[in-house]
Amino acid sequence: MTYFQGKSVWLTGASSGIGLALAQQLAEAGAHLILTSRRSDVLEHVRTELVHPERHQVLALDLSQPEKAAKEAAEALGDQVIDILINNAGVSQRSLILDTDMQVYRQLMEIDYFAVIALTKLVLPRMVERRSGQIVTVSSVAGKVGTKLRSGYNGAKFGVIGFMDSLRAEMHEHGLVVTSILPGFINTQVAHNSLTGDGSALGHEDPDNAGGISAEECARRSLQAIAAQKAEVVVGSGLSKLAPLLQRFAPGLVRRMIAKR
């Protein structure tokens, strides 16, 4: 995929799941990667396993503190050119509204919403100055369809899709590309790491994700959409891929289906 050849790509959530698969495929496509997640040791292992590890760098950040993370990133990156920012880091949720602490909602919003804004605002001025660059956010089908047990996650993902829509409109005159990726059910550890009502991790997978497409296939389709400079693309299979379309044209049916799950 020649689109990524020689480009500087900043990828968050790069240590596992979709992010790891994106890192592997981007490296194979000739990109120069800046790999971000919380743990530098894990990122360093990822880097050394990539094609041409010397081309890539590690930037460990705690995105649960977005403004602090953006400041640390600014200091680390300096004047380095970023051609593509891929906001992929995120955390999901598995808890009923009645059982969920407010702090859990805040944590979800910090990581899934405010971190996207903070890092986007960091790279945006230089992209505008160069009239070149692409902002990508890996959101979710949960940003189009509200479901049980994911109220905070739904809220953050609905919000980030709206932010990206506004960003796309504002950046059109500056020649920048804005792409939203909406995965459906993907076979990763996302449910295992999801926050429960008290903020602890769920600790196991759910059958919906286990039956989803692989992280590698999700990454492949996502990179195709990024290279094609698509505005928005749903990545998945079965009901999770159809859900946004059904929500648009048959919202009553979708509400009934979700209520019965």
UniProtKB/TrEMBL annotation:
Residues annotated as domain Ketoreductase: 7-189
InterPro entries the UniProt entry points to: KR_dom, NAD(P)-bd_dom_sf, Sc_DH/Rdtase_CS, SDR_fam
Family matches, as SMART domains: PKS_KR
Superkingdom: Bacteria
Keyword field contains Oxidoreductase: yes
Keyword field: Oxidoreductase
GO cellular component terms, A-Z: membrane
Annotated Gene3D superfamilies: NAD(P)-binding Rossmann-like Domain
Molecular functions (GO terms): oxidoreductase activity
Record-stated family: Belongs to the short-chain dehydrogenases/reductases (SDR) family.
UniProt name for this protein: Short chain dehydrogenase
